[in-house]
Amino acid sequence: MGIVVGAAAEGSGGQGVRDPVVDTAGAEAAGVENAAQRAAKAGISWKSCPAEWNLASLQCGWVTVPLNYADPDGDTVRIAVSRSAGERTGKKSQGILLFNNGGPGIAGLESPQLAISQSGPWEKVGRIYDYIGFDPRGVGHSSPISCMDPLSWSKTAPAPDPVPPADQAAQHQIKEQQIETAKAYADACSKRNKKMLPYMTTASTARDLDVIRAALRVEKISYIGFSYGTYLGAVYGTLFPGHVHRMVLDSVIHPETWGYEWAVSRVSATQQRWDAWKEWVAQHHDTYGLGRTSADVASRVNALLATTPKPFDQKIGPNEIRLFIAEQVDQDFLWPNAAKILSEYFNGDAKSLVDSVAPRQGESEIVADEHFSAAQTAVTCADSEWPADWNKWDRDFIELHKKYPLTAWPVAWNYLPCAYWAHGTRRDRIVVAPGKDLPSVLIIASDKDPITPYSGAVRLHELFTASRLVTETGSSSHIAVSRSKCIAEKIDVYLRFGETGPHDMDCKPETFPETGGWKARSAPTVFPEDGARSCHIPQGYTYIQVAHSFSCPSGIEYLLAKPRTGLWACTLPLRFTYDTSRKSEMCSIGSIEHSYLLKKQ
Asked: Looking at the structure, do residues 545 and 583 belong to the same domain, yes or no?
């Protein structure tokens, strides 16, 4: 609806986009001023949002911005914006509060609707601000980009195992395949978005924000950004410090390492949460039965990854399971969910695992997921210089995998298209620094957040010298305001009264992983004989195969469990005997380790 790319601005003589050139700051600054003047004159025609957008409580409109700010009379993009219905007026009014939910690539039109439906800091703040949402350029309803046919993209799952095998020849083949996939994706993005791609940058989006400000006919905006939205806010504060009223940045992207160095930092941060999760699960062995030590839990999960070379139900494989585990362990409050799902799997019920890990199947969901992936890749790659030499990637990630095996190679393959993002795209990187007119900014961070490591908040706090840093200590919360009343209160006071306090502040974590009373149907217990070629199993137990082939040849992995509907029981080999002298989570048959789950009949 009304999305225009390639239509010249009024009075431009119909000229299209120029070939990308090295733009000067002065040219783009002049382009922003030109676009802002036009936007202020045009304003925004607020109307009820289209019914299919599901934003019944909001009003929607459009703001026209230049595709290339160094060429303000060239092609344009229409940015979709939304606001909470009803003007805030009176002496207490603080103007507008604009949201960005991160990504990059996340649509933001629904942000005001989400805010007004919640309590926390938003209830009182919403009485004195107009909430403004927007879909950034290339996202949602603002000329969304796509790098491949979404339905074809959905068929790429399950993806190959991201960890190259030990065999050198096979390892070389897998890496060459990943390189070709990355090159093909980068090339497809360039061909499908030839005009848009060079200007899918954070700096361009920050300039769009200022044109939106002008279209709203206000001199200053307040802004709250989450995750990647903190980097967007930092860039806006650098480019337009005098146009900021108040600014909250929650879960901070490092302002100087955004790009390859930041991606590498994610690897070690997630591994730390993985190690912490294993310890927690081991402490709750009586609930989940996944192992009494961290090493036992790791062995159980590694066995799962090692025994799923073929996809479950043609939907998920080791790649999807690995990413699921990484996402779950990142956030403390998700720990019980991951433990429960894995416990159910090892008890013979794979449904929850498949349902949780498999890609979304609805057509609209598939399209949205592909568009998100395209926009995220485009901005991430265009913002920074990424190493173009594959040998550097290979050396770095071989070493990273030795220390951080859970996510090293998945991170490499996820960002590898950026190594080949050279199709005429210029890098539009802004050096983050405070202008003299930038007010005190409230920076929020959790000191164990693996998605946006704490060092990013510390560094931005150093750069924005008048800022205040609020730390949720001992917490891995990403988007801390969503899980901390203490932080919500700090944001509420700041947005309503502009008060940050005389010094930095700490908040104690208020949420901890809870088992919720759930308990595995039967905690696994294993009785192996070290070094034996047969596992010792109690009389009266049976077993089911882990894989879904429903055949039971000897010498491969089985789960021991009471046969029931939906579980395929196999005859117990006569050579299996019972020995209670030793207990472990693993049972060795020859040189191959196998996980077993015992359940009495």
From this structure: yes
